[in-house]
Amino acid sequence: MIRNTKQLLQVIIPLILSCSLSVGQGVYRDTLKITIQEADRIFIAKNLQLLAQKYNVDATKALIIQARLYPNPEISFEQGAYNPQTKKWFEQDFTNGEQAYQLSQMIILSRKIKKQTNIAETNYKLAEDNLSDLLRTLKLALHSNFYNIYFLQQTAKVYDEEIRSFKMIVAAYNQVKGKGYVSEADIVLVQAQLYSLQNEYLTLIDNINDLQSQTRLLLQVPATNYLLPSIDPKVVRTDPQSASLNSLLDSAYLNRTDLQIAKDNLLLSKQTYTLQKALAIPDFTAGVAIDRHGSYVTNFNAVNIGIAIPIFNRNQGNIKNARILMDYNNTELQLTKKVLDEQVVRGFQKAIDADKLYKEIDPAFSSNFDTLANEMLKNYMKRIVNLLNFLTFYDSYKQNSVQLNSILFNKVNALENLNYLTGTSFFNK
Q1: Is the pLDDT of residue 391 over 60?
Q2: What is residue 311's three-state secondary structure?
Q3: Which pTM does this prediction carry?
Q4: Residue 1 has pLDDT above 50, yes or no
Q5: CA distances to 61, 249, 265, 371 from 126, in Å
Q6: Do the beta carbons of residue 39 and residue 146 sit within 8 Å?
Q7: Rounded distance, CA 364 to CA 366, Å?
Q8: Rg of the chain, C-alpha, whole Å
Q9: Which residues pair with 76 in a beta bridge?
Q10: FRET label pair with 139: which of 15, 54, 250, 387, CA 20 to 30 Å apart?
């Protein structure tokens, strides 16, 4: 039971006002303050997954050069090894020595080189689209982590203030313990609340640090950097309905890289089918030959043409396989379009719902916590409010702050998701 309110206030209030609890950063040595625009620039320049995929694109481009090349001509030389009449090895003289020469060139029919080049070019475009899709996916992860870290850090500040206050209350109570200013039950309740807050705070900090780790990997910044995201306040005020559903769908059909990949795969299967049909037509080989003594006349010369007869192998299996893959990729393209429609419409609805909830927030809710906390503490010490109401106030404020930051994050993240689903930066530019 409190016997001397004024004396107890004189002990507690200075302690609370003079102390603060900082967010422990553990092994972090440097703080990196960063905006979303700066994060994007670092990400594009340094992300190793993007760099690796760029090398893959360059490697695929080199295959276009290879596909355009014609087969090399072949030349052969034949030398007699042993002449049983003259008993000589590798005889070179004009009278008795035997040499034969042959030059041949494969002639490619049915425009197979052109068809191979078309396939190589489509594979190159497919690699570029895969790079763009990887960029789109990683950018969503980066932006989502960025905003999540920011709003979780805002929540951590609320925990920081509450833990600071409760620590100082417990410290002050311990100073007057046994003097009749406060009951043992009150001390136990305040300590229990403090321990609960500290446990929740630890979970929150672990979550922030996990997101920090993921984001540092995306940005390729040192592991000892602690990221402090900075956002433009207008981001949370952006209205998702500033863009129409039709414009979002049109943009998605034009810019969604997964849709482009599905189109590329269908085109590739069509080109492969065309090539496989062309491969059923055999190429022929043409050449010239000179033989010094190995034929019916000296210095025999001839031209030759050779071609395979397509009786057994007419490339039937590969043609059938290519035709089935063409049907498969066409089905995949239609499915991708259906999924795209559903995703954009559902993403737009989520953004509208998140914006509606955001607009229902009372602007006066985020009033200064220090003032509220100090007034509530003074009222508690004056016995205007009891301990239960005092603890309830702090718990309610904490829960409301957590929910507020969650609502703000969900609103911003819904807009980022729309950017991802449409392949265009409509929002949060």
Answers
A1: yes
A2: coil
A3: 0.84
A4: no
A5: 11, 22, 8, 59
A6: yes
A7: 6
A8: 39
A9: 102
A10: 250
